[in-house]
Amino acid sequence: MTDNFSSKEIRTFKKRIVQSILNTDMALMKDLRIQLKDHLDKHQIKNGQNVEKLIDTESAESIEASKQLISSSLIHAADISTSIRPFEISEIWADKLFEEFFYQGDTEKSKGLDISFLCDRKTTEIAGGQAGFI
């Protein structure tokens, strides 16, 4: 499948995905929201108007920056949207999320590191963690 893409395109794609995942960090949410709002305001994108201006075409750098901003914003929105889904679906996703956290905590513990917040399967209360996240 990668035969259809140049090595530069593959590197760009990987970089965009990694950066988008890193931007799901809640500590970055406010900055990401401000960047997106500024971008939408700059191009007067509102209520479905001017969506063709979503990608800033002023320069190669602005094209890449706006593509990254849109990608990061969409992945972040998908990441935090779990809590507004029906309870049965939210519960499944919360269980998967905490299993990932607990795996990280187990790995940290096995390496003699401090266990990160919400990653200790013996002390973390999932319901409390979810309420704190929301």
Largest sheet: number of strands, sense, barrel closure:
none
- Write down the Rg: 19 Å
One letter per element, helices H and strands E, the order comes to HHHHH
**Strand element count:** 0
Whole-number tally of structural domains: 2
| Total helical segments | 5
Q: What share of the residues lie within helices?
A: 55-70%
Low-confidence stretches: none
Q: Mean pLDDT across all residues, rounded?
A: 88
From the spread of the alpha carbons, the general shape counts as globular
Percent of residues in beta strands: under 5%
Structural category = mainly alpha
Roughly how many Å apart are the termini? Answer: 39 Å
Describe the overall structure.
- The chain is mainly α and 134 residues long.
- The protein folds into two domains: 2-82, no CATH class; 85-133.
- Helix content is 62%, strand content 0%.
- The chain is built from five helices and no strands.
- Helix 1 (7-22) packs across helix 3.
- The longest helix is centred in the C-terminal third of the chain and has 24 residues, at 87-110.
